[in-house]
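Progress note, sequence design subtask.
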C-alpha cells in the first residue's frame, strides 16, 4: 500500500499543448507547399518536386529516431544530477532516457528552418507564361469588372457543410484517395509504433538501439521509394489514370510482400500471472 500513490505531476499538459501547437504549425506545409509547387512549376517537373518534398519529410523521422537513440543513452535528469552517482545503465529496465531533450533540439531546429519561408515570394512566374502576363492580366481585369457589374451586391459566405459536401466529399476521386491514405497510414503508423517495443521485448535490445535500428532500416527505403516514384512519373509523363494504375500495382506488390511478416517472429515470453500461473 505504501508504494501506491496518485500521480501529482501535470507536465503531460505541456506535452499535449506542445504537440498540438507543433501539429498546427506543421500542417500547412504539405497542402500549401504542394499547391505552391503545382502552380509555379512546369507540369512535367511537379511529380519530382512533390517526391522530393515527401522524401525530405520521411528523412525527418529517420533523424528523429537517431536523435531519440542518442537521447535515450543519456539519463533523464542529465544536467541536474552528477553522472558519477548514477548506478544503473541503459540496459537496466529502470533506466529512463532524456526523452525531453529531443523536443528542445527539434523545436529549435524547426524554428530556424522556418525562417527562410518568410522570404519566399508570394507568386512566381512560369517560364512558358512569361509572355502572356499582360494579356492574362488584362483579361482578368475585364472579367472582374464584368463580374462586379453583374453582381454588385455582396456575395453570401458559403457554409462549411455545403462546401465539404459539394467540393470535398462530392469529389469521388478525392474521397477515394482520402480513404486509401487513411488505411495506408493506419497500417504504417501501427507498424512503426509497436516495432521498437517488439525489438526490445523479443530481441533484448535497449530503447536506444531499437530506435537506431528503426531509423536506419525502416524509413530510408520509404523515402527512396517516394523519390523513385516521382522520377518514374516524370519519365513516362503519367496522367491521372496512369498514376492510379501505377499506384495500384505498387500497392499490391507491397501488400503481398508484407504478408511475409506473418511467417517471421518469435514466441511470446511467458509472463507470470498473464500467460502462465504463478505456480
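Output:
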Amino acid at each position: 500500500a505504501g508504494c501506491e500513490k496518485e500521480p501529482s505531476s501535470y507536465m503531460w499538459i505541456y506535452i499535449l499543448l506542445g504537440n498540438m501547437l507543433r501539429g498546427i504549425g506543421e500542417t500547412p506545409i504539405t497542402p500549401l507547399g504542394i499547391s505552391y509547387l503545382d502552380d509555379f512549376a512546369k507540369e512535367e517537373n511537379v511529380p519530382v518536386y512533390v517526391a522530393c518534398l515527401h522524401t525530405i519529410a520521411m528523412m525527418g523521422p529517420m533523424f528523429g529516431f537517431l536523435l531519440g537513440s542518442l537521447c535515450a543513452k543519456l539519463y533523464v535528469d542529465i544536467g541536474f544530477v552528477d553522472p558519477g552517482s548514477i548506478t544503473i545503465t541503459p540496459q537496466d529496465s529502470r533506466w529512463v532516457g532524456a526523452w525531453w531533450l529531443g523536443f528542445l533540439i527539434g523545436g529549435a531546429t524547426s524554428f530556424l528552418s522556418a525562417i527562410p519561408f518568410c522570404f519566399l515570394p508570394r507568386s512566381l512566374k512560369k517560364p512558358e507564361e512569361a509572355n502572356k502576363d499582360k494579356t492574362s492580366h488584362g483579361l482578368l481585369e475585364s472579367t472582374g469588372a464584368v463580374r462586379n457589374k453583374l453582381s454588385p451586391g455582396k456575395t453570401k459566405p458559403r457554409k462549411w457543410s455545403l462546401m465539404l459536401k459539394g467540393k470535398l466529399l462530392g469529389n469521388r476521386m478525392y474521397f477515394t484517395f482520402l480513404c486509401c491514405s487513411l488505411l495506408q497510414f493506419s497500417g504504417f503508423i501501427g507498424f512503426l509504433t509497436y516495432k521498437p517495443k517488439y525489438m526490445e521485448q523479443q530481441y533484448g535490445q535497449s530503447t536506444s538501439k531499437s530506435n537506431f535500428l528503426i531509423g536506419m532500416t525502416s524509413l530510408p527505403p520509404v523515402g527512396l521509394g517516394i523519390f523513385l516514384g516521382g522520377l518514374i512519373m516524370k519519365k513516362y509523363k503519367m496522367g491521372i489514370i496512369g498514376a492510379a494504375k501505377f499506384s495500384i500495382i505498387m500497392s499490391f506488390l507491397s501488400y503481398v510482400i508484407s504478408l511475409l511478416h506473418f511467417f517471421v517472429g518469435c514466441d511470446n515470453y511467458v509472463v507470470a500471472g498473464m500467460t502462465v500461473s504463478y505456480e
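Residues 144 and 150 are 10 Å apart (CA to CA). Work on this subtask will continue into the next period as scheduled.
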